[in-house]
Structures are given as structure tokens and as C-alpha cells.
Amino acid sequence: MRAITTALTLLAVVAAATLPAPAVPARAGTTGTAEPAVAAAVGPQPGTFTGKGFDTCTAPSQAAMDAWLAASPYRAVGVYISGGSRTCAQPNLTATWVADQTRKGWRLIPIELGYQAPCGTRTPKMSADPATARGQGRTAADSAVAAAAALGIGAGSTLYNDIEQYPTNASCRAAVLSFLSGWVERLHTRGYLAGMYSSGSSGIKDVCDAYDDTRYLRLDQIWIAWWNGVADTDGGAYCADDRYADQQRLHQYAGDVTETWGGVTMKIDRNYLDVRAGTATPAPWSVTVDNGTAGGFTAGAAWGTSAYSGQRYGADYRFATPTAASDVAWYRATLPVTGSYEVSVWYPADSGYNDRTPYLVVTTTGNRTVAVDQRAGGGRWVSLGVFTLAAGTGDKVGVSRWSAGTGYVVADAVRITRV
Q1: Digit-coded pLDDT (tens) for 267-296
Q2: From CA 273, how far away is CA 53, in angstroms rounded?
Q3: How many alpha carbons fall within 13 Å on the CB side of residue 6?
Q4: Which among 58, 70, 264, 355 has the fewest CB atoms less than 10 Å away?
Q5: Where would I find the H helices in 88-161?
């Protein structure tokens, strides 16, 4: 892991001439033959820990780890367990290696280095479409969990998604935050905590700025790449002190440094951790469909497009004059099972909008109509209630023009959450 990505390929481990060459076969997905997971880490990783750690591209040999354990100030080590963007082979990283380090007192920081920001230079890139990116986040979580389990890193551990520096902008930020929401959602379902590593100026700032944004799920821990040379968990201007404040931070405070301990020299990044073990709480299944979601919204020619209100969800919203005819703007979604779902809507409020906008909810027993006053309460999620909705793909919620009220009817975004 490097804030400067090219340094990933520059790791060098120089040990005393008497150190034996590693003889353990590689984990699946790297050069060599996979070793069965015959051992397990001692407790969740990194668990509850405050102190210094380091990360390297290739997991060091056992002899190097032992030398540093005896002589260095470090007690935690970052290891790349999975991801399509890894550039280093992992001849030492096996279930036995994991169990040996944790038994001797090392804390592990498991890293997934895979999908990268769509506006960045590194590949593979996540989709620029937020809905697709969220699905990719879930896929990445499944991959990381499989790799962690094969190494004996069990449930309760935190897995960290490494998204390298990117030139953030609104659309890229939406993709990254959606991807991370999928990552959090699936890891919690699988019993793991969700962490993320990124540059303070891009990924960390985006995550911290969206801390209270209900469109996205919060991470459990953040790993701040900010090479200011200070061994603490301060995020500076990148992350306010009140965000991820409950032992939820790691700080990579120096990088590409060469150190020698116990006669063993390694090129590392320096980290300071203040984290604690916790319980992963599965996030409720939820889907958000905006009027700009590809394949998720349809409306007739009478529906205009506007970005007038700052209370809008996303880039814009749709509007139309009321009429005594059926002309519904529909939101399409795929639900996993037939069951109870809360339906919430987002709209900008304005005195010129409709005071009785009809929302149609397609339930298993027919359409239900709920009238909403769009002159008040805008710029937030407003619940229409809990309904029984059918599994599968189809039009689930609509906004009708057939209103007894006056003013424009507005269609912006809907959120469907399983309860």
C-alpha cells in the first residue's frame, strides 16, 4: 500500500545471509500451490489495539517477522490478502503464517486491493454508475471474506479496502461511496467489520464529508494516508475529529522508509492504530432509485427536468403539471424476496409544488396511493409507510400527475428498505 502507487513494486526485504529462504507454498491466487487453511488467527484482527504498525507489499518471512518482533516498536502489520490490483506475489502468506504471527503477538491488518475509483489511473476500475459500483462493492467483499477465511482470519475481523488516490469530483465520489456502501453491507452480512484505506485528500475526505449522508452506509474504521510524520490518528483538514472518533482510525503517517531492526532491513510504510474490536451489525437491505438511475426510471414526454432546487437528490429531478389523466413516472427496482418494505421518498420542497402529490406503491394486493405535500419537508427522506412488495424486477413506486392539488408534481428519488 502506498499513497504513491508505484512504490508498491519497490518493496525490498534484505535479511541476514543466514536467514533461510521461505519454503511454504503460496496461497491460492498467487504464484505457487495453495495451502489448506490448517490454522487460524488468534482472535479478530486487528481487534482492539493502540500503537504502531507497518505495512509492506509482500508479507515478510517468518525470520524477518521474528527479528522485528524482538527489536522494533511495531506490533501490527498490514498484509494484502486479496484483490485484482495487487502487484506483489505472496510466497509467505499462508494460514500457518497468519496463525504464527498472531500467536506470537502480532496484529494483522488485512487488505483488499482491487477496484479503484473510475476517475483514477489505476485498474481495475469500478463502474461510474453508482448502482453498479455498489454491486461491485458486494462482490469485492465476498472475495475478501473468502481470502480471509482461507487464511484463518475469521469473522469479527476488520477487512480494509484500499482505494488509492484519485482526482475526486461529484460523479466519481458518488461511485466510490456507493461501492463502499456495498462493501459495508456485504461484510456485515458475513460477520466482518468494514474498513477503508485511502489518501486523505481523496477517499478519506469523501468518506468523512459523507458521514451523515443517509444515501451511504458508514464504514467501521478508516485508514488515513497522510504522510505528515506524526504518529497519531488525527485526520487534519481531511476528516473532522468527531467523525470515526470511537477508536475507529488508523493513520499511515510516513511512507517508503527503510528501517533495520534485529539485523533485518525492510522498506515499509509507518502506521499508528487506535482501533477496537466490535460486532458487525448487518445493514438492512435497501435500494435507492433516483430519476437519473440508468434503467430505473421512466417518465412520459410531459415530464420536464430541473436542477432548480438545492434540496434535490442527485443532479436533477423531474416535474410536471397536474392533469386528470394517468401519466405516471415509475421507479423500477429488483427486490430479493416478497416481504415487508418501508418506502421513503425524496423531493425538493417549494411553494410552487403540489400540496397533494400522489405516490403509487405497487403492493402484492394492488396499488396503494399516498398523497404527499411537496411544499414542505423536502431535502430529506419522507416515509410513505410499510408495504408488502413482491420479489423480482418491476415498477415498484410511481408519481402520478392525477392530483387534486395545485402546483407541479415532482419525481426525484425513492428508497425501498426491507424491514
Answers
A1: 999 999 999 999 888 767 889 999 999 999
A2: 7
A3: 0
A4: 70
A5: 95-104, 130-150
SS3 (DSSP) at 281: coil
Please state, for a pLDDT cut of 70, what percent of the chain lies above it. Answer: 91
Give the whole-angstrom CA distance, residue 76 versus residue 101: 10
Query: Cell triple for residue 126?
Result: 469500478
CA 214/CA 222 separation, integer angstroms: 18
Give the C-alpha separation, 56 to 75, whole Å: 14
Residues 216 and 210: their CA atoms lie apart, in Å, by 8
Total-model pTM: 0.68
Average pLDDT, the chain: 90
CA 358, CA 399: separation in Å to the nearest integer?
A: 6
Query: How many Å apart are CA 183 and CA 52, to the nearest integer?
Result: 26
Beta strands, E only, 291-350: 297-298, 304-306, 317-320, 329-335, 339-346
Rounded alpha-carbon distances, angstroms, from residue 363 to 42, 273, 283, 366: 49, 49, 23, 5
pLDDT beyond 60 at 23? no
DSSP 103: H
The answer to whether 61 touches 13, Cβ cutoff 8 Å, is yes
Single out the residue of 262, 253, 263 nearest to residue 55, CA to CA: 253
Take residue 91 and report the three cell numbers written for it: 510466497
pLDDT given for residue 15 in this prediction:
31
pLDDT of residue 249: 98
Share of the chain above pLDDT 90, in %: 81
Sorted by sequence, the CB contacts under 8 Å of residue 106 that are 6+ apart come out as 65, 69, 75, 76, 77
Helical ranges in 229-363 per DSSP H: none
Q: Helices (H), strands (E): how many in the chain?
A: 5, 21
Q: Let me know: does 349 contact 378? Beta carbons within 8 Å.
A: yes
- What does the alpha-carbon distance between residue 226 and residue 4 come to, in Å, rounded to a whole number? 11
Q: What is the pLDDT of residue 1?
A: 57
Cis peptide before 167 (omega within 30 of 0): no
Element (H, E) at 243: none
* Residue 302 contacts residue 320 (beta carbons within 8 Å): yes
- Assess whether pLDDT exceeds 90 at residue 21: no
pLDDT per residue as tens digits for the range 299-342:
999 999 999 999 999 999 999 999 999 899 999 999 887 888 99
